[in-house]
Amino acid sequence: MRIQANHVFFSYDRLPVLTDINLDIREGTLTVLCGVTGSGKSTLLRLLSGLAEPAAGTILLDGGQAAAGNVSMVFQQPETQLFAGSVHQELEYGLAERGVPGPQRLELIRSALARVGLPYDEFGGRSPFLLSGGEKRRLCIAAAIASLPGLLVLDEPTAGLDPQAAGSLLELLHGLRRSGLTLVIGTHDLDSFLPIADEAIVMSQGAVHYSGPASTLSADPLVLTGAGLEPPAYSRLGHRLRQRGLLAELPDSLDSLLAALAEQPLPAPPEEAPPASVQIPRLSWSGGENLLPAKGNMAGRSSAATDIQTASARKPWQRLDPRVKWLGMVLGTLAVLGMQALLPLLLASGLITGLMLSARIPWQRTIRFFRPFLLMFLFLWLLSALTWSSPDYKLGPVGLSLAGMERGGLNVLRFLLLVALGFLFTETTTGAPLREALEWGIAPLKKLGIRTRNWSLAVSVTLQFVPWILDKLAQLQLALNSRGRKARGMARYTPRQVALLIVPLLILVIGMGDELATAVESRGYDPTKERTPAYLLSWQNRDTLVMLCILLAAALLWTVSRFS
Fold this sequence. Notes:
The chain is of the alpha/beta class. It has helices at about 40-50, 85-95, 100-115, 120-125, 135-145, 165-180, 190-195, 215-220, 220-225, 235-245, 255-260, 300-315, 315-320, 320-335, 340-360, 365-385, 400-430, 430-440, 450-480, 495-520, 540-560, and strands spanning about 5-10, 15-25, 30-35, 55-60, 70-75, 150-155, 180-185, 200-205, 205-215, 385, 395, 400. A hairpin with a 2-residue loop joins strand 8 and strand 9.
């Protein structure tokens, strides 16, 4: 399958991520896509796989738009790609979503598992969650190729694998390329993938820095260093040895380097050993002694620029003392909980909306956060309107009650406002300030023998845990979409979809909880001892002004609520 990208642009939260991308990837080739973190390569992989749409420009497969089943993608973390109770069901889900008839599925499943080295008779009935890391990665590839796609996109396929599993996976991908499948691989592991690649694409600051034969990157390492990347080890050593006249040609892989060195005569031993204080010179592409890219070059510059822009956008809120925001959170929560009429709830909605706009939280992130809550609360609202006695509108054995609908609507709005307060709070307050302010507020409880450090740790972890769960949920949804189900709106949360998401999400949450517990234990956490603050609280005049505004707003909402 041939892939063409023509003048592709993409933005995320109003920040440009990809700019004027033009590519032409030939059919049956293995293309390496590389770049520093934040260069846009993961976003480009999603565009090529059809999981995201460009803001401008076109991506054509075989001269036309992508068709269902033509493209499959394998993500970096296998734990965010596995859903079903058995290996057989894991592959069958994707085939069913792509419309493959039932009688044909077993043969395709057996063939895909055989190609990745997981025999069906041995692995077909096993749970995907009990496989090893390498086996999970192979299963994800099997699920991707079972539908016989023309293009396979992989994001960091060897990340987290031991050398033996990584080598086995490389052989698998090399075999898939020989079978005629077009592969695009996003990776930092240039030592492994450049030797087997046909083409290479180097990304830098959201643009294509280089696109052409992969062999050029070994012959001219300045292409990589210019994008902030470190050339492969065999290339660095080959250039240095060639400068000293020990190699006639540059190696294109580690094997060719070792073969060339094996033909060289062993040098005579030195007459005098160098002193221990002598430093080994760093290698350089430019004729000096520094071969490695210097710190502070292009590496990470794109992501740093994004972070600077984001931090600048939220600077007014970030400069506030966290104790002011805790005060606003507490008073806002109490005010909302005491509202029983529509007018004060509408006033509170307008106030919170204004605060979110002033905080400059990206609207796309806001929508992603609230979408699951909106669907859940809509269901609860409709449920509260159902009644079996004296309905206003008859719907078979049950009916709708206008009074119940009104009460349910007020409760839903109240809960949404509480969620909005929490979202505003966590989006504008990082973990360390949040915890220090909480510990300051509950410090008097120490006199009662209460371990306030445990409380502050639990609250701060919980508040920071919710956004993490929502991000993981988005990753799981994306993985489901990669299997052929491009669900939108309510279809993303059907009972079947929710059932598929529950198990992997619980596994991720339990794993994260275990990691947090291990981290706390490894740091020697003792709630009875004083600790050095991670963030110094500083009260400024602007904090006093904001506090007065919060008190006035809370008093206004309380007054309106009391007389409504």
